[in-house]
Design goal:
By secondary structure, the chain is of the alpha+beta class. The protein is built from 9 helices and 7 strands, in the order αβααααβββαααβββα. It has a domain of 218 residues. The longest helix has 28 residues. It is extended.
Length: 317
């Protein structure tokens, strides 16, 4: 049986005469009228208002600087420190921080001018972000009723996200070498007091690029006023099994991080958490502002519709 000869000529590429190819499928054309749009605006404004009030009440229930409160989180805060500056944010080498040996001694040019130290050795970790790590240390003391002084135990690990600790930040493979031997041939950032492989002398598993303090700092804040987690109350022993007992407290601060150069301010925050997180008013305020704007627009549209009529008979041609 012979093959059917293909069509030729100007009509050879014409689509088949089907509903799909000839665009004859049924379609829905929604007509937006005041009767459908205005109720939606009022409903959306009400939803945003309810969410805003609910989140605001939730945030207000979060306690800060209040004792006898179960799990307590210790934060350090900075004001007027712009971690969201673009040149600051890109001044890092993610390949180096993820543990690639070929980037350990050949950092990215984005780290400039914090690529090599004064001795000519490559900096690890390189860049302005790592170089400016917050390096104050704190010791919190509880003054008991019997005039005794007890150091408040703080957990200094488990402060990071799982993805940060296990995916975004990793040490170079050591093999049979120590971590110090792996970092041999590199130098510490200029403002650091110790090299990265000696950040935690009490726990060898908290050194290098997987150090919790380093990871917390390297997650840049979106706003110039922020706080970052420093430690969590360890509730294993009395009198801290139920949180921080009522009483007087003092903090011993090792001052290493200067703030006068950027006209900033440092602060210490003790806080509890709710299901919503810490005390942050941004999201509830955003919902309340959105609710007000939508309500205002809905009222304006209602007035216009009421004045000119839904069929536009009062509108001038």
């Amino acid at each position: 049986m012979g093959k059917v000869k293909a069509k030729s000529g100007p009509l050879a590429r014409r689509p088949d005469n089907s509903a799909f190819k000839q665009q004859r499928l049924p379609a829905l054309s929604t007509m937006l009228t005041a009767n459908t749009v205005l109720p939606f605006f009022y409903f959306l404004s009400l939803i945003s208002l309810v969410l805003g009030v609910w989140l605001l009440l939730t945030v207000q229930s979060t306690q800060e600087n209040v004792l006898q409160s179960g799990d307590v989180f210790f934060y350090y805060g900075l004001r007027n420190f712009h971690q969201n500056l673009r040149r600051y944010m890109i001044s890092r080498d993610d390949g180096q921080m993820v543990g690639r040996k070929n980037r350990l001694k050949t950092p990215s040019s984005y780290c400039n001018p914090f690529i090599k130290g004064q001795n000519g050795l490559p900096i690890a970790p390189c860049g302005a972000a790592a170089n400016s790590i917050f390096n104050d240390s704190f010791i919190l003391y509880y003054h008991g009723s019997s005039a005794s002084l007890a150091r408040v135990p703080l957990l200094r690990q488990g402060l990071t996200w799982y993805t940060d600790k296990n995916i975004k930040f990793r040490n170079p493979s050591t093999g049979n070498m120590t971590l110090a031997q792996v970092f041999e041939g590199t130098t510490k950032p200029p403002y650091w007091q110790k090299p990265v492989y000696e950040r935690d002398l009490l726990d060898p598993n908290n050194n290098g690029f997987i150090n919790d303090d380093l990871i917390v700092w390297m997650r840049e804040a979106a706003f110039p006023n922020f706080k970052k987690l420093y430690g969590v109350l360890h509730r294993a022993n009395t009198p801290f099994t139920h949180g921080l007992p009522a009483g007087n407290y003092s903090i011993d601060i090792s001052y290493n991080f200067p703030v006068q150069y950027f006209h900033g301010r440092k602060e210490v925050v003790l806080a509890t958490l709710s299901w919503f997180g810490g005390q942050n008013h941004f999201l509830p305020v955003a919902y309340l502002v959105t609710s007000g704007l939508i309500l205002l627009l809905a009222v304006v549209l209602t007035v216009v519709w009421w004045k000119f009529g839904k069929d536009g008979r009062n509108m001038e041609e």
